[in-house]
Amino acid sequence: MTPRIPNRTARRLFMQRHLLSHSPTGRQTKDDLLDVINRLGFVQVDSIQTVERAHHMILFARNQTYLKKHLADLVEKDRHLFENWTHDASIIPSRFFSYWAAAFMLRRSKVWDPSPQVAQPKALSWLVQASQPSTTRAATKPCSHA
User: Fold this and answer.
1) Cβ(37)–Cβ(91) under 8 Å?
2) Can you list the pairs that 65-71 forms with residues at least 24 positions away whose Cβ atoms lie under 8 Å?
């Protein structure tokens, strides 16, 4: 049986999980910004600017004292974040690199197909066939299963 929760509870959980349930004010440091991105998992980079680029709007919505310089420093100077392709260009916490390394390798090896029904089985098949420990070092070796 599928568990059911009231709509009000579902909305509250959604808002909390996306860090939108508290007042977006108060001074935000670089470390606070890094914590927000770590908790979100990644922030999609959007190159289209109507009012502002989407990733800046996403981060500003979570704290209205957000500074673009802090994001630039975390990526370019401190290297706590990095840019790569998830399903779109994204800014990802560096501590999550090992989780993404196999997907990055598969994409480079032409085995990658971004649709979930194809990508997940191919990724699992590649990891099993490779018989390698799932480490960053193993995932960055050239793939012979393409």
Assistant:
1) yes
2) 65/25, 65/26, 65/27, 65/28, 66/28, 66/33, 67/28, 67/33, 70/28, 70/29, 70/30, 70/33, 71/33
SS3 content of the chain, % helix, strand, coil (to 5): 50, 10, 40
- CB atoms < 10 A from the CB of 100, how many? 19
- Whose tokens are 């999980």? That residue is 17
Write out the chain's pLDDT in tens, 146 residues: 888 999 999 999 999 999 999 888 889 999 999 999 999 998 988 777 777 888 999 999 999 999 999 999 999 999 999 998 887 889 999 999 988 888 887 777 765 555 555 555 555 555 555 544 444 444 444 444 43
Q: How far apart are CA 43 and CA 26, in angstroms?
A: 21
Closest CA to 114 of 86, 92, 143, 134: 86
User: Measured between alpha carbons, how far apart are the two ends of the chain, in Å?
Assistant: 41
Residues in the chain: 146
User: Residue 44 has what DSSP assignment?
Assistant: E
